[in-house]
User: What shape does this take?
Amino acid sequence: MTQFKPVGWPSIIPRIVTSDLAGLARFLRDVFDAQGDVRSGAPTEIRIEDSVILISDGGGVRDAMPAFLYVYVQNADETYRRAIAAGAESIEPPADTPYDDRRAMVRDAWANVWQIATHRGN
Assistant: This one.
């Protein structure tokens, strides 16, 4: 069978278009301990745990396209604090949900909304 996508990648990958590629990549590294370096001429691959997000500069051809993403992390409260320290705006402070997630929500400076969660159930 021919490989139709990069090895280890899921079939659906979120992509964010921004006018400040380096700033958004720095935010993701600071808040989510993301891995990945800014690349020119190709989308920047950012890895958060086992997931990939592609971010790219619209280059005047594409308008910014923010995202709304749900991200599981080891500690939602600590990640929320890092997001606020990195300049994100609080939408919802950390709270327990009826479906056993401890969850918070922030909006970053690029209009992306991040629901930050830690699952506490089994």
Summary: The helical segments are 21-32, 76-85. Residues 15-58+66-119 form a domain with the 2,3-Dihydroxybiphenyl 1,2-Dioxygenase; domain 1 fold (CATH 3.10.180.10). The longest strand covers residues 89-96. The beta strands are 15-18, 44-48, 51-57, 68-72, 89-96, 101-107, 113-119.
